[in-house]
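ok trying again, last paste got cut off:
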Amino acid sequence: MLINFPYIKRDTPIHRMDVRAKLLLLITFGVAAAQTSNFWLILAFFVIAVFYYQQCHLRWHETKSAWRLIIVLNVMLILANFFLTGGQVVRGVDTGPEHIIAYIPFLGFLAHTPFIGLVPLPLSVESSVFLLTQTLRNFAIALIAVSLPYTTNPGHIAPGFKGLGLPDWVAYAMDLSFRFLPSVGRDFGTTLDAQRARGFELDKLRGGIAGKIMRLAP
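nice, full thing came through this time. structure:
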């Protein structure tokens, strides 16, 4: 399903905020959250972001498609970072003795033939806290970012970027982006419904690759 961020008109404090204030908040909040890996500071950022998002009065069924994508991407990024760094909090930096919880078998390089095999990947208290810190940071920034398109009238986007002193082409490009995504989403939904009405199986395709292609063929 195509992910889009349609504007939802409501009378809330966030809806009434100037779009320039929202943009500056998103930029400063993201930069500030990226400057630290301290768990307690990130937790404070997360609490602030949750409170801010609650003021938008957005319902789950209105934003679930966007949040599903964000959750999947966040989990993939966190796990990929953990495995690629070998379970270290900071790769290549000695952060002192770690409190190992368990060792996870993972595919890695060996010093002998066949040179590739299962190696123990340490899961420590420090790495677990670091993973949780990264997760909270990403979700905190996402809470601020997701609220922007849902609470901002598309007609105010271009003046907002222009009011920040950005060039006209930047303001125009962002304005088109905010207007284009909801339109594409509506067109995609209409096309999908039409294909279902014609009997095309688009959601649950059975069989192998050849069978799926045959079912998608007109």
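cool. Strands lie at 100-109, 116-124. The mean pLDDT is 78.
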